[in-house]
Amino acid sequence: MRVTMLLADAAQVVENKLYVLGGGWSMTGPDPVPSAIAMKIEVPWDQTNDRHRWEMALLDADSQPVFVQGPDGEQALLINGEFEVGRPAGIAAGTPIDLALAINLGPIPLPGGRRYVWELTIDGQAHPDWQLGFATRPGPPAA
Length: 143
Prior knowledge:
This protein is mainly beta. The chain contains no helices and 12 strands.
């Protein structure tokens, strides 16, 4: 599969088209702010009509999972879902089918002055291009 991803302030999907607000950043903070991941997945012809599972994991600069406080204590920050795309009637055989996804996130409290990566896997497979790196600005000096 071929995947295009973009960090944004907000994103939405309407009729399988992405609408992105404040897209293309790679630096945030230091205060937590809402963010989004806009994603276009090109599903190869031979993988249409099959259910696929995706997962996004937030990793630190050492490729270790980032943990956040959840209702049951600290947990790795993971977002996941499933998709299945069908072949539209009349489309030429071999044509990849696009799928647009918008993942909107609330503010995530992350320490300033550090680097992070959102890493995507589809059906347990990862690819070097399926990563979105960003950094958090350092906070103000302590008084």
